[in-house]
Amino acid sequence: xxxxVINCGSSSIKYELFEMDDESVIAKGLVEKIGTESAIVTYxxxxxxxxxxxxxxxxxxxxxxxxxxxxxxxxxGVITSEDEVAAVGHRVVHGGEHFSKSVIITSEVxxxxxKTVDLAPLHNPPNLLGIGAAEQxxxxxxxxxxxxxxFHQTMPKHAFxxxxxxxxxxxxxxxxxxxxxxxxxYVSEQASLFFEKSLxxxxxxxxxxxxxxxxxxxxxxxxxxxxxxxxxxxxxxxxTRCGDIDPAIxxxxxxxxxxxxxxxxxxxxxxxxxxxxxxxxxDMREITxxxxxxxxxxxxxxxxYLYKLRKTIGSYIAAMNGVDILLFTAxxxxxxxxxxxxxxxQLSFFGIEIDxxxxxxxxxxxxxxxxxxxxxxxxxxxxxxxxxxxxEAKHLVDHT
Length: 400
Ligand code: AMP
Fold this sequence. Notes:
The chain is α/β, with parallel strands linked by helices. Helix content is 38%, strand content 22%. The protein has two domains: 2-147, Nucleotidyltransferase, domain 5 (2-Layer Sandwich), CATH 3.30.420; 196-385, Nucleotidyltransferase, domain 5, CATH 3.30.420. The chain is built from 15 helices and 14 strands. Helix 1 packs across helix 3, helix 10 packs across helix 11 (296-320) and helix 11 packs across helix 13 (337-345). Bound molecules: adenosine monophosphate.
């Protein structure tokens, strides 16, 4: 069974075509700068070189049309007809309280996703555009929505509510939702497979730290708390997002700097975090290098980043009254032995002990980096949100 996974941004379509018999990727690529005369299309058939071209692509429908033409190309193609695609898995960022698992897309589902647009104005509209375009181009496939928020719908009320007037929750659904759910679910399942232990016997803390970053507490296989909130702005210090701040700062800075609401939102989302503190970069590689070269601001930003990450992990040990596995994933989590070492060294009180040699060994596989004495197992788990989305779609196809 072949499943196409698509992830649409406001001007982009990321896609991967899977053969689910062996869960292999047959082809993948990216369409960028949609809405312009010079959209960039990259296309790679597994085992061959990546190709790139530019084209006029005015909307997501045209973008997806081109993707399908590439997938069916006489020379480079990997399928002969659209009908070979049994299902399309769509990444949808916000499912609000409507969705606690993946669903086959119907008009009611589309309607419910539309209702959450207010909660994710940057993400859900392009996700809906992608769904519309794919339904038009692949009318015979089953379309499945997989939500970033769904995994966290198991959080108890005391964890997901803000201490605001309760009416804001009942009237406007102001609450914490959490994100990166597909990734946290995938890596926690990988951890349970790695130790051949049932998820129901495990307390896991999953640190998904990339450009965006969140930590999740997973007990009995379900999310019991996570650091992102109503939007992906809450929680850790990130590449360009500030994470937790005193909410009273917002009106204060608006008044002092004469900003509009849109400007302060943009400041907190796009010009804060590592970028805001260093004034230089949001990229952990560049900042680590600058710190090694003696840049004081880079050192400060990294100290702040590590401190917040460590405090959040510690708070989730308290939330679950223990932890069996601490795992690191995403760009920084998978690649920065420095960040992993610094965080874990300062958590030694909890019985967390890293093996330096294992931590410095690079691999694309799930691997343990804790010592044999470590009370808590520490893992590096490469995330694979696309595969998780494809699995979810296959599961729904198999059960209809
Ligand atoms: P992601 O959003 O998951 O793609 O992660 C992007 C982040 O991972 C960026 O901040 C990168 O600098 C960071 N990253 C990737 N490779 C490394 C590395 N080898 N060392 C430190 N950070 C890295």
